[in-house]
Amino acid sequence: MANANMNCWPLIVIGGSSERGQETMGAFQEFPQVEACRLYSKFSVRPSSIEAIPSVIEKAVRSSIYGRPGACYIDIPADFVNLQVNVNSIKYVECCMPPPVSMAETSAVQMAASVIRNAKQPLLIIGKGAAYAHAEEGIRKLVEQCKLPFLPTPMGKGVLPDNHPNCVAAARSRALQFADVIVLFGARLNWILHFGLPPRYQPDVKFIQIDICAEELGNNVRPAVTLLGDINAVTKQLLEQFDKAPWQYPPGSKWWNTLREKMKSNEAASKELASKKSLPMNYYTVFYHVQEQLPKDCMVVSEGANTMDIGRTVLQNYLPRHRLDAGTFGTMGVGLGFAIAAAIVAKDRNPGQRVICVEGDSAFGFSGMEVETICRYNLPIVLLVVNNNGIYQGFDTDSWKEMLKFGDATAMAPPMCLLPNAHYEQVMTAFGGNGYFVQTPGELQESLRKSLADRTKPSLINIMIEPQSMRKAQDFHWLTRSNM
Amino acid sequence: MANANMNCWPLIVIGGSSERGQETMGAFQEFPQVEACRLYSKFSVRPSSIEAIPSVIEKAVRSSIYGRPGACYIDIPADFVNLQVNVNSIKYVECCMPPPVSMAETSAVQMAASVIRNAKQPLLIIGKGAAYAHAEEGIRKLVEQCKLPFLPTPMGKGVLPDNHPNCVAAARSRALQFADVIVLFGARLNWILHFGLPPRYQPDVKFIQIDICAEELGNNVRPAVTLLGDINAVTKQLLEQFDKAPWQYPPGSKWWNTLREKMKSNEAASKELASKKSLPMNYYTVFYHVQEQLPKDCMVVSEGANTMDIGRTVLQNYLPRHRLDAGTFGTMGVGLGFAIAAAIVAKDRNPGQRVICVEGDSAFGFSGMEVETICRYNLPIVLLVVNNNGIYQGFDTDSWKEMLKFGDATAMAPPMCLLPNAHYEQVMTAFGGNGYFVQTPGELQESLRKSLADRTKPSLINIMIEPQSMRKAQDFHWLTRSNM
Amino acid sequence: MANANMNCWPLIVIGGSSERGQETMGAFQEFPQVEACRLYSKFSVRPSSIEAIPSVIEKAVRSSIYGRPGACYIDIPADFVNLQVNVNSIKYVECCMPPPVSMAETSAVQMAASVIRNAKQPLLIIGKGAAYAHAEEGIRKLVEQCKLPFLPTPMGKGVLPDNHPNCVAAARSRALQFADVIVLFGARLNWILHFGLPPRYQPDVKFIQIDICAEELGNNVRPAVTLLGDINAVTKQLLEQFDKAPWQYPPGSKWWNTLREKMKSNEAASKELASKKSLPMNYYTVFYHVQEQLPKDCMVVSEGANTMDIGRTVLQNYLPRHRLDAGTFGTMGVGLGFAIAAAIVAKDRNPGQRVICVEGDSAFGFSGMEVETICRYNLPIVLLVVNNNGIYQGFDTDSWKEMLKFGDATAMAPPMCLLPNAHYEQVMTAFGGNGYFVQTPGELQESLRKSLADRTKPSLINIMIEPQSMRKAQDFHWLTRSNM
Amino acid sequence: MANANMNCWPLIVIGGSSERGQETMGAFQEFPQVEACRLYSKFSVRPSSIEAIPSVIEKAVRSSIYGRPGACYIDIPADFVNLQVNVNSIKYVECCMPPPVSMAETSAVQMAASVIRNAKQPLLIIGKGAAYAHAEEGIRKLVEQCKLPFLPTPMGKGVLPDNHPNCVAAARSRALQFADVIVLFGARLNWILHFGLPPRYQPDVKFIQIDICAEELGNNVRPAVTLLGDINAVTKQLLEQFDKAPWQYPPGSKWWNTLREKMKSNEAASKELASKKSLPMNYYTVFYHVQEQLPKDCMVVSEGANTMDIGRTVLQNYLPRHRLDAGTFGTMGVGLGFAIAAAIVAKDRNPGQRVICVEGDSAFGFSGMEVETICRYNLPIVLLVVNNNGIYQGFDTDSWKEMLKFGDATAMAPPMCLLPNAHYEQVMTAFGGNGYFVQTPGELQESLRKSLADRTKPSLINIMIEPQSMRKAQDFHWLTRSNM
User: Fold this and answer.
1) Which among A48, A64, A89 is the end of a domain?
2) Taking Cα atoms as reference points, which of A483, A431, A429 lies closest to residue A461?
3) Which residues contact D244 (CB under 8 A, 6 or more apart)?
4) In angstroms, what is the C-alpha Rg of chain C?
5) How far C435 CA lies from chain B's nearest CA (Å)?
6) Which residue in A199, C13, C293, D444 is deepest, having the highest Cβ count within 10 Å?
7) How many domains does chain D have?
8) In a shared domain, residues C324 and C459
9) Does a structural domain hold residue D141?
């Protein structure tokens, strides 16, 4: 039912429930499903009759894409499947119009522009709201015209390319901590952004919040300016201000210098880690080699702990809406489902496009069996399992054997450790895809080359890394978990 | 915590729950209250500590007034009352800024103006969203400049005065049924507006929806144009269009003539009913006399079945946000609470202002004991109980006696009948207020005069009407219930 | 649908919801009512069709009375009212059988008997579960045969008469605090019984829990013995043990002496308060005079703070299931509804029976308008409003005037104070019942005499007491609130 | 915390939620988890402090095993992990006592015995309640002493051995349809037992319900007798009746003959299917060979559609509580978790015991990755994947290729088909276990022999069957789905 002209995709879950006539009797899988989905959905409903289905679907689609997007649930009782209905009694319902667009009030836009002009250490943060709103063109103009540094959130990556000269992701902590004015483009001040609070931010930092959701504005901090509206439309309103009275932030400012220096030193540290020759490999070495071969137009899907967090800093996105990761909720198990959905969209829209799905070994364990689906539909997916034998860290084979001397694994193995030397690639070959077990940079390069070259089959590369491999030291240890 | 500059009032319910340390033990009134309030609130939460209270209140206030307004619940466990906390550990949280204002996109506004210009039989409907948005000035300009007919919803009454020459409330059904273009200013197409569907509307009527809530747009009908944003701001955008290219709808059009004729005949029919000399009085006679003495600046509160529905058509509002009735949910029992809240606001803001609370006898029964509160705080309220001895209709004393011959009232009395000749005015005198029992127009006039003249005490006038008194015949019987 | 042979009454709430065909459209009072009632009901459901109504009602009735009793909710959508259905498609469903009876296992009963035999300071507590189970005969035999002291909970009063020589209610705190073995007959260790924990109990007190609900057993304390089953059946099992090997607790024991002494001194203190001649009266004076005239077979309904708590200690119950008070949840506003329900049952079952409803003035304010219903159906109810002008305490007229010198009542009056000199009796006369305003013992005696003598009309006696009147001093201040 | 003397295992889920101090701020995985678990749990709670944890765990354990057993949820906020607490402030809470036992009232037991004595065509149904209650000894005596035919429900299998001469499982539909008296031992009349209604039962069949849950009694049918209590205790009560006045159902009755004939013909039909030599194998051939080698004391776990349903009829249980299948809810994805839990219990209790987990290929797909856990802890599990390439039915390789000629699999493949020739055994070898791919009876026998012989490693046998293989024809097509 998605409208061809729509840029957004409704998220509707349709569930089957037990026959209405058997309710309260102990029917097969009888459960109050509409009620159970209430907390998870914008709209959760069972159509009261077959005739009501079209209108209920319209309402669900509309609720899903109008305002802040969200999932909706529609419950179809089992007896609907075989019910007969006069086709004339069905009222055809047209798909809803594309989401309505609203703008910020002009005075607020003027105030925002003025705050930006007066900033000493400005920063733009680009969130997934900007991606959903297709605001990339406007934000790029703003960044380039005003010479402003920017930072993407995990799902905001790619709205502007990660290799854009104004992207200061490599100095993320520094940028957050010392900015005096921060413009949020559809980014929430939640745990991912450390709630917008000191010590991760200056106590007097001025936030300019641009958001489609009124209730989000002012959450956790009192912003200097709030701009309620469609992020694309509001960005254009801001641009108008800077078109009327052109202004640019001095590229030679102390702030730019600070950020560039910090980026340089961080990138050097990463590069040093990446170039380590010791085996097993570390995260940086792995991602460095993956990045080298990453097709520019691929969809990147990722989940895991260190795998997702470190991978996000090294693997670059060049296009908007080309990255899916665990996001706001940090839910594990979503990666393969995301990859399958992305691949099905890609197959239609851009036959050459690849989906690169970068998984921690633990994350892969949640829904690894989806490789059957990937192989069944022969989807253009390359799966990378970055395998450290555990969550955050595991044991190598020798340590594992050592541990077992003291007793049975059910009693001895730490809960975050997984089996060493698991051959996840064989889960792929079991279903006819390509599987690679790699232990060295050379093997990794070779297997990536083959996987990307073979357009006839999906592949899985099981990449063995140092089980104790950690991320590089952080400047800042407060709330380390949330350094996405 | 309401900001002096704010035009809106947050609706926060603070509930006390049992001590945290006794949870799961069977504490006094132990219950999952936050969970129980979830379905009824925009935000339902228990602060996790005393220190968290200011920030939770800020969030509740903000959620209540940002976006579409709604109620919020805050749960305070009993042990918080006596807990001690270092005053320095409390983080003072400023009240949120006034709600952010958004506007519709310009192209949509232009399209809306064009649809209006091309309307043959246009109609504006003014909902409570327009009242909340303080859009009265803009809407008045639009109505007067473009000579357009308008209709208020129950809670939209008074945004423009009911006696405005362009108000076609007296031809409501006709106006809805034959309009070809309808502009909704913060009015939902719910049961009150018959869902926007035939036969109460033309099948091809073009709706222009102006609303602050994106998900409301397109609900039940596919609108011609949707304008998402603050209703006041969007109204001004529309006005700009008509300022740039002035236009007015011809006052001598056939549509205007049809509406005026229908209004005249409806008003004549009401007047005829109102002028009936037979006793007991009917609804129209009562409201006619009330309307004559209604202070122009009073707050009108009303609830009941016929009392609310008929009263709404006769009692006029001249000022925005000066009417409270059962509204969207049609909940009975809210009237006296509304009256008390309105009176407390009035006392502060406008010492001479009166609250006139028009209650059906059944509706009064839900919370009639609140007269104690009214008397305790000596609030400037005049309560009218329009008493037909029942819901929709009751028995007179003789019929009641007749019925009792056949058995005991618990067995015989219809469930919608109340006691005949109940002296509700004595419920007021019991607490020291003025009470009047009136049976004739003369008594009604006299008691109203006295009640309004006595600024030292609240009054209650118990107005006996014909127990079988009904509303006048309706053109249209489809969904009669919802003819608010 | 209640079975004539059943001793228990199902509690079913039937609610009307909006038409199914208008769901999701904004129907009149559209709300997920089944879901909203879930937390409050044992069973909450909407029948899926008219045909399903009989079976759903059977399920609700059965759920309500089988196992631990509770309320159930049935939702009837508006369109069911006018739907037609072939009468042959309705499957008639017989009412369920009376609740199944279960017994405790014999070894546990033996162990319980042995623990009782070895008790030094035994105590029986009779809860409302004993009343629901109709266990009065068995418990009386046990008490009398074994010469054991007992204590009723608020809703367990009357299972044995309050004036039974073995009732130690007048030494409640003492009895709880020093008992070494306590047998609970359908009484929960919740706030009313101070959770069964020190300092209100000995740390090593042995609880024998008799309950119909398995999950209740062991709650908050680890009992010495648990007896799961119907309380009546289990009591008989216990009696069998004491029939087989007769035993009685020595009536001259130190424990009995302690309890009797404490009772004597408490009763003397009460009597002293009751005999005070000063005016306004205090609680004890009032209840003393009420008790004198209380018909032995009346139903006593009560709610309030001090009114309910003190009244409960003075007003005696002689018959089981003849007292209704706010109980476990302590909910205010239930009194008049309870009185009406009790009166309707009484009218049928025992035409001479009276319902005496003892209300605090604040409690009366919650649903005082129900006097209209009482008068409409001419129910055999005598309402007593024990009026101290507030909750816990209020102001007298002079203090109130004094306070008002400092400002307006909305600003100055403490939140727990009500209007002084409120004439609640006029709320009764307003609807044709008898009303009395009493200030002295003589007036109270006279008005009670008249109210009980007049079988043609309900009465309300508004009893003015000292606004600062308090309960007598307590031995024990820990958790004073819960000394029900 | 499980008590060594307890026969039952509490089911407690402990979830971690976000830090309390970050609630409402957008914390990591912030969600109202206690509320979200409410519908799924008997008891769902967050301890209010660290000190409260022991008592909350005791309550959860007790709720889980007292009365009808069920799952409980305990929520631990993240900040509890690092909170420090004075060890003396923690109140140690003993584990609850074993569940209390209750019995039916004697008169009801007598009536039940009398109904059984007068039965013409009696049937006992043994449900999982009998297994939970450890009622095997009593039920065996009753069956053998009274010569009664019995039938187990899916989870009641093994309470008596499936090869018991009185087991009429092979004539299930016949037995249900013509019995005139049915005794339910902890079996619900839900979808699995066709709700106890015609046409699957005689309209006047007399049910004797034995259950621990009062509210279950009388559900869907009006039983002749209800026996509320612990199923083991009640069975013993019944036995006492038949001890006092011995009675047995005539083994040469027409009913026994009818049942035996039907069993013979059904078993012959199964045997014929099992002996088919055609390849690929069918379900019966597979299960016949599995059954031949099944260790008598193994735990059988099973899930799937046909795999579970047909497997249940062929694979025999000899011991109570040695079978776990999808049960009442029919939830897929539980099999491997069940197998792991069973294996961990087995390892402790009976080191030689094996868990045989029989999975449909689709069912395996839900949580197949759990083989990593199985291998990590080297659990004594033999996994059988009965592989028909789909749900209910799939395609063979040739049909699949044929289909693909018409288009892409994402467009063409029916939603219930899975990849043909999936090598699930390689999912096992990937983690170091044994894997077998078998296509013939000989290979199946051989692989089973090896798997059972190898006590050092888990095994997975991927058994290819005819993709269109169906169950044998059923007598009865009404509600075929529920023929468990």
Assistant:
1) A89
2) A429
3) none
4) 25
5) 11
6) D444
7) 3
8) yes
9) yes
Q: 3-state SS string over A438-449?
A: ECCHHHHHHHHH
pLDDT grade, residue D348 (50/70/90)?
confident
Contact A74, A38 (CB under 8 A): no
Helix (H) or strand (E) holding C254: helix C254-274
* Contact call for residues A361 and A387 (beta carbons, < 8 A): yes
Average pLDDT, chain D: 93
C85 and C170 together in one domain: no
Helix ranges, C67-214 (H): 106-117, 128-132, 136-146, 172-178
Q: Among residues B20, B208, B204, B27, which one has the least CA distance to residue B109?
A: B208
How far apart are alpha carbons A396 and A416 in whole angstroms? Answer: 13
Cβ atoms B81, B18 nearer than 8 A: no
Distance of alpha carbon D419 from alpha carbon A72, whole angstroms: 30
Calculate how close chain A gets to B444, using CA atoms only, in Å.
Answer: 49
Q: What is the largest CA-CA distance in chain B?
A: 75
* Residue B67 one-letter amino acid: G
Q: Which two tokens stand for residue A187?
A: 């980014």
Angle at which helix D254-275 crosses helix D283-293, to 10 degrees, equals 100
- Assess whether C372 and C279 both reside in one domain: yes
Residue C423 pLDDT > 60, yes or no? yes
- pLDDT tens per residue, range D74-126: 999 999 988 988 888 888 899 999 999 999 999 999 999 999 999 999 999 99
Q: Which two tokens stand for residue C368?
A: 């005082």
Q: How confident is the model at residue D3 (pLDDT cuts 50, 70, 90)?
A: very low
Given a cut of 70, whether residue B351 has pLDDT beyond it is yes
DSSP string, C333-385: T-HHHHHHHHHHHHHHH-TT--EEEEEEHHHHHHHGGGHHHHHHTT--EEEEE
Choose, out of A24, A30, A191, A428, the residue to mutate when testing the contact with D (most D CBs < 10 Å).
A191
C421 vs C115, which has greater pLDDT? Answer: C115
- How confident is the model over D193-217, as pLDDT tens digits? 999 999 999 999 999 999 999 999 9
C-alpha C24/C-alpha C32 separation (Å) is 10
Tokens of A170: 């490599």
DSSP character at residue D67: S
Quote the longest CA-to-CA distance of chain A.
75
Q: What are phi and psi of B360, to 5 degrees?
A: -70, 160
Q: What is the dihedral of CA D54, D56, D60, D62, to 10 degrees?
A: 70
Contacts of B476 (CB under 8 A, 6+ apart): B173, B177, B199, B200, B483
Residues of C in contact with D214 (CB under 8 A): 66-67, 99-100, 102, 212
Both B324 and B466 in one domain: the answer is yes
What backbone torsions phi and psi does residue A244 show, to the nearest 5 degrees? -60, -45
The SS3 assignment for A288 reads helix
- Which one of C40, C61, C66, C102 makes the best mutation probe of the D interface by having the most chain D beta carbons within 10 Å? C102
pLDDT of residue A3: 39
Tell whether A225 and A309 lie within a shared domain: no
Judge whether B132 lies within some domain.
yes
Q: How confident is the model at residue A481 (pLDDT cuts 50, 70, 90)?
A: very low
Choose the most confident range, by mean pLDDT, from A300-309, A468-477, D346-355, D411-420.
A300-309
State the pTM of this model. 0.95
A389 sits in the region (left: phi over 0; alpha: psi -120 to 50; else beta) called: left
Digit-coded pLDDT (tens) for B222-252: 999 999 999 999 999 999 999 999 999 999 9
Confidence of residue C46 (pLDDT cuts 50, 70, 90): very high
Kindly give the pairing relationship between strand B355-360 and strand D122-126. Answer: unpaired
Closest partner residue to D375 (CB to CB) among A364, A419, A431 is A419
Cβ proximity of A122 and A184 under 8 Å: no
- Domain of residue B140 covers 106-260
CB contact under 8 A, C24 and A45: yes
| Rounded Cα gap, residues D157 and D294, in angstroms | 15
* Mean pLDDT taken over chain C: 93
